Amino acid sequence: MKSYTVTKNDAGQRLDKYLTKSFPNLPKSLMYKYIRLKRIKVNARRAEISTRLAEGDVIDLYISDEFFEKKETLYDFMSASKHIDIVYEDENIILLNKKAGLLSHPDDSEYIDTLITRVKRYLYEKGEWQPQQENSFTPALVNRIDRNTSGIVICAKTAEALRVLNQKMKDRELHKLYLCIVHGKMPKEQDILEGYLTKDEKKNKVFISRKPSPEAKSIRTKYTVLGYRDGLSLLEIDLLTGRTHQIRAHLASIGHPLLGDGKYGKNELNKKTGYKKQCLCSYKLIFDFTTPAGELEYLNKREFRIDDVWFQREFEDGNL
User: Fold this and answer.
1) Among 239, 94, 102, 243, which residue's Cα sits nearest to residue 179?
2) Which residues, other chains included, contact 144 with Cβ-Cβ below 8 Å and sequence gap of 6+?
3) b/e for 46-58, b at 16 or more Cβ within 10 A?
4) Which of 27, 54, 99, 166 is the most exposed, fewest CB within 10 Å of its CB?
5) Do 59 and 13 meet the contact criterion of CB atoms below 8 Å apart?
6) Angle, vertex CA 54, rays to CA 7 and CA 169, nearest 5
7) φ and ψ at residue 271, rounded to 5 degrees
């Protein structure tokens, strides 16, 4: 017989889900049989397949040792770079400054060295995350930004933090502001742009229209001009809606593409400046909770920012 204590990150799961993840060598048919025969108990009592586990529950398993055997695991994330730029960290979250060119998550072009694999390596080497002891939770990014966009990305270090922040993101209680440089002088010092966005999944590109259509989603983009120099404008962007490529496509649609944006911009304009990097950064994050946030309530109304945005410095110094 062996006993296991349910950790905070495993709480809230059904018993069968926990067992499936924890003991992959145990066939499901036997698992259900052992629960029925009381060879698997919770807190020394008979349990059901659907029993919801709470932190501190003790699971007793009266089963063969062969089902407890685990193969030695080699972790892919240990091949990722060690470099991460931390804006803020506590026991529940990490705010990271993702550099332009780094993927947030693995894709077909890069599997190993991404922001999330770097974070996993960091937490593993710190001893804060032990995947062999976790049965369901893995550190996860709450938001993501495009490969060629830089800025603040939120990573949840616990299952509860991930649950809360995912809901806050959905309810738009996390306020993100962006800096960007666009070609040309904006028509107004401040304005709210409105339009309709359609996404072409095959081309991984979006299209902006001023007229609604059945497949289009409405978008609103607020901008404030922070400076103008040599045919370029430095803007602060407040996304009133959050759609794929919204900032890049919306500004390009009114004739002011981002400096360095090869997809929605104009290469002939970018070549004149010599800049190939996309000048867009998610530089400020405000936790603006209007509903309870549980153990993350201490973050409410706190503001975090990246003070040294490379293209803002270059712009203000007149080097663009």
Assistant:
1) 239
2) 104, 105, 153
3) ebeeebebeeebe
4) 27
5) no
6) 80
7) -65, -35
